[in-house]
Amino acid sequence: MAGSVISDRIAQGSGRKVADTVIRNVRLFDLVTGELLPTDIAICGDTIVGTLDHYEGANVIEGHGRIAVPGFIDTHLHVESSLITPFEFDRCVLPHGVTTAICDPHEMANVLGRPALDYFTQAAMRTVMDLRVNLSSCVPSTALETSGATLGAADLLPYRDHPKVIGLAEFMNIPGVLNGDPVCMEKLEAFAGGHIDGHAPLLRGRRLNGYLSAGITTDHEATTAEEALEKVRKGMMVLIREGSVCKDLRALAPLLNPVTSPFFAFCTDDRNPLEIAHEGHLDYLIRLAISLGVEPLAAYRSASLSAANAFGLRDRGMIAPGRRADIVLLDDLRECRVSDVISAGRLVNDALFAARDIIPPVGTDSISLPAPVHAKDMQVTGSGAQRPVIGLLPGQIITPFLHADLPVAGGIVQPDPAQDIARICVVARHGHNDNIGRGFVKGFGLSGGALASSVGHDSHNICVVGMDDADMAIAVNHLEKTGGGFVVVRDGRVVADMPLPVAGLMSDAPFEAVRDRLEVLRAAARALGCQLDEPFLQLAFLPLPVIPHLKITDFGMVDVNRMELV
């Protein structure tokens, strides 16, 4: 069979047989020189077999002089953070030219463990796009939180040779790597010689050298040009991130040019359907990069060929004979205006999505509170001494460690709207304990009410922020009823919500419904005074331990620089 397939490719590419499909009359954007080259593109099955020539095909797609570029590769993302299932993610982003996506089911794995890996590897076999999986390396991500599951090396090894698995996902336990933690060492040794993703915010100097010596090769957490330049000079592939919350492209764009583009790729990490509808997906990153002065050759090369090479996907990344037929047709190169997408030789349309064998979601009963919470559970007792406060930085998940004098009434430390300081709590939701971490945060702009989310990186306990303790309690209890999600509460009533019943992380609705509901939620948050572009995703990142800043977990406020409660 294999010989027959190869023989057909040879015959069609050499012109002895009519090609299965021909994309006629396009201008191929050459990733070697940056030229636009008039050509047909011949395809046999799922493989390109002819370029820079004229071909006849049994099936013809008229190019009408449009520009052909290789399919885009998102090098690091969490499908769960799009708030939709892998099948809706497929339907949402493939029309934007994303023909390959490399996902880490880290969020769902921290809730469910191995069933999350089973779900994602099975779903990846059925999507129209090529969805690849990196196995979640840090479940739990830290001992400072209560997660829903634990995955050791023995749990990951059975998936290592799965056809959709690339390697080990972002290794965020930097102290564990540098200090030789046995659990970390076991995972690193089990996947040695394969691909291991990094997660190294602010890591520089000798500590970076030690981290890289573990065989880690990529990083999506660089937030400054200086940090990114050191990392690529030390052999790392830097994945330039532009998501719904973390926006690093403007800071890193000055580094990206045709000379450096082999060392940079693009990723979204976390991007929701509302932002995709308003701006796009990887097409938006390419468009933004070019608007910031990046040469189109560098932008498109990083979005395809450089990304493919970094992850060992040698069968794609160029429009060239022998490569996978992932092709994007553009009406405009600088604007990255996508008009048609070909995925593995198939023109993307509704019929392709309708033909998929969709599997049912898992984890639809993942919210387990021991008992309803009450207003008093949200309160911090104490005197009027200075309090540690989490600060927010727009467009980043790094948080300043602040202090503030807060008012006290009846022995209860109060939020202070005048200083834009609200209460924040993390409520354990996996049924293992009844922990509630309490603290304060600056930057939400709330005048009253509460916002809550069952998306809370990385252990995904319930995060709630508010000016009113009773509203905060109502918000938490409401999420248990809906199986998780987002909610806005004011004056004792729910004014907007969006259930996320799949592991408390994803909707089972079409992406269009999620997009529209996010608009309603954003408007409800603005009515409380919140002007953040993504208030729920910003809230979701506040429990994420990013050295060396202050975070809140279900154990309480933590100075993760010193690894202690404050």
From TrEMBL:
It comes from the Bacteria. GO terms for molecular function: adenine deaminase activity. The gene is ade. The keyword Cell membrane does not apply. The keyword Ribosomal protein does not apply. Keywords: Hydrolase, Manganese. InterPro entries: Adenine_deam (IPR006679), Adenine_deam_C (IPR026912), Amidohydro-rel (IPR006680), Metal-dep_hydrolase_composite (IPR011059), Metal_Hydrolase (IPR032466). This is Adenine deaminase. Signal peptide: none annotated. It comes from Komagataeibacter swingsii. Residues 396-563 form the Adenine deaminase C-terminal domain. It is an enzyme of class 3 (hydrolase). PANTHER family: ADENINE DEAMINASE, N-ACETYLGLUCOSAMINE-6-PHOSPHATE DEACETYLASE. Residues 67-348 form the Amidohydrolase-related domain.
